[in-house]
Amino acid sequence: MSVTPVRAFPIAAPSKPRLQCADFPGGAVLRRHPPRRHTLTVRKAVVLAAGYGTRLLPATKAQPKETLPLVDKPIIQYTVEEVAASGITQVVMVTAFGKRALEDHFDRSFELEAALREKGDTARLNEIVRVSELADIVYVRQTEQKGIGHAVLQAKNVIGNEPFALLFPDDVILGEVPVTKQMIDVFEAHGGSVIAVQEVPDAEVESYGIVGGDEVTDGVVKANRLVEKPKLADAPSRLAIVGRYILTPEIFEVIERTPPGANREIQITDALAALMKVQPVFAYRFRGRRYDTGRPLGLLTASIEIGMRRADIGPGLRAFLRSLPLDD
Fold first, then answer.
1. Distances (CA, A) of 165 to 136, 156, 218
2. Is pLDDT at 11 greater than 60 in this prediction?
3. Other C-beta atoms lying within 10 Å of the C-beta of residue 133
4. Which helix (DSSP H) or strand (DSSP E) does residue 93 occupy?
């Protein structure tokens, strides 16, 4: 695995016509054009790991939330393994101050490797070497917390003029086919940006961005409305946006011209709503089990469920859970 420091080399994007649309935020800057299919496959991913992790304080006061253990792997490793299993070869990880542990986790540790080799612990040695070879990772920093859209923008020079996957590590999604691979297939079939969604109960609608639209194929909806955390009565559906996207490179120009919204932050939902006016955007009901590890209860339940599936610790965990004096 090669690691590029914060001052990553710039990748010049080929010149392309400016997008123009009269009702785009900030004025007439987007031009409506027919959907075009990108000939390049999705080979890069942006992983957002710059947040404070306030919902998991005090555990995250001095430790990145992405390095908290989910059974015996840090949360962030599940994300990188997902993109690697989806055929993506380069990861742009957006970090912030105090996140150096993320770089160390995916780097080589020759002293640890030597110690394991001397002990004859081949299984653990092979595992930590495998982790360091999952992908080529470029690290860039978000120096100010200005929202998800702003964080995505930090990856622009590395991504260049290519479609890319966007992942939030808090959402750990496990399935027979990696959800990122499922979404790449949808992108290649329909030729537009793809948002992962799942149906949520009425009580949770106000906690998510909600997508409205028309179903075009089984599990795929062509979006015509994106509403950030609507009141239940104003929600166009119960399809909630979760932390997986496939985005066309035009999203960068849109983000640059999207004004700050709530909390003076640039919201990715606002940018996607603007992009939707000139390019198709699809919502995809993915196949898999999602865990919200950014909350204490979500992290705990994910650890229990994933641990129970493990042949080495599942039987012991089940026996322990059965022994608990649970009250109704």
1. 15, 13, 22
2. no
3. 11
4. strand 90-95
DSSP state of 34: -
Amino acid identity, position 213: G
Beta-bridged to residue 92, according to DSSP, are 46, 138
Strand partners, 69: 74
Confidence (pLDDT) at 328: 61
Bridge partner list, 283: 195, 221
Q: pTM above the 0.90 mark?
A: no
**Domain locations in the chain as residue ranges:** 3-292, 295-328
- Among 283, 7, 267, smallest CA distance to 152 is for 267
CATH class of the domain whose range is 3-292: alpha beta
Enter the tokens of residue 285. 């009901």
Contact 278, 31 (CB under 8 A): yes
Distance, in Å, from the CA atom of 67 to the CA atom of 86, rounded to the nearest integer, reads: 22
CA 205 to chain centre: 20
Give per-residue pLDDT as tens, 188-230.
Answer: 999 899 999 999 999 999 888 899 999 999 899 999 999 888 8
Nearest to 236 by CA among 262, 194, 199, 263: 199
Question: pLDDT per residue over 45-100, tens digit each?
Answer: 999 999 888 899 999 999 999 999 999 999 999 999 999 999 999 999 999 998 99
Kindly give, in sequence order, each residue whose CB lies less than 8 Å from that of residue 32, ignoring residues fewer than 6 positions away: 20, 21, 277, 278
Give helix 314-323 / helix 296-309 axis angle, nearest 10°.
120
CB 45 within 8 A of CB 88: yes
CA–CA separation, 220 vs 235, rounded Å?
A: 19
